[in-house]
Amino acid sequence: xxxxxxxxxxxxxxxxxxxxxxxxKLESYQLTHTLFEGGWSEPIQRELFRRxxxxxxxxxxxxxxxxxxxxxxxxxxxxxxxxxxxxxxxxVAGGIEEGETAEQVAYREAEExxxxxxxxxxxxxxxxxxxxxxxxxxxxxxxxxxxxxxxGVYGLAEENEDILVTAISFSExxxxxxxxxxESAIPIIAIQWLALNRDKLRAKxxxx
Length: 208
Known about the structure:
Elements: E1 11-21, E2 25-33, E3 44-50, E4 54-61, E5 66-73, E6 87-90, E7 92-95, H1 102-114, E8 120-128, E9 137-144, E10 151-154, E11 163-169, H2 170-178, H3 185-206
Parallel strand pairs: 4-9
Antiparallel strand pairs: 1-2, 2-3, 4-5, 4-7, 5-6, 5-11, 8-9, 10-11
């Protein structure tokens, strides 16, 4: 068999209920699905963390060979870190609201979170962030910016955002990644992509 198997893949939802619905939504499912060796699974219970799909944007200045890095407090890190390590190094990201496209979110979040205007935008990839229990699908972009004046604290007060923004060289960012200083998956994926495509991207964007 190949990864794209020959089976007729199906699933059936037997029961579904919402168990929590405030800022995020948590749903409980009882379902069954077809098996690789034939037949159907026994009914299984799964919880699904529901949230809007999201966008991540690697802001990159090809002229200065710099990327824009954000640092902010993340509650998801408090169980696995010292107090100081709960502040993570990340890239611009945000949720897609009703009526918005992923591209519109990329431009909006770049200004809200980093004070940057995107000059050119290209899609890197789209992927699930944690499909074992969460519905979120992320569109990852690279945005061309001028990083010469990037510096300061940004974010929306009504969303309790407190984001320190700096521009660092690509080599410094890659060193941080190799040292394990960048622990969020989205910037790791974005910086690794840039490492593979940086020369081609600079040749394209420096001539336009």
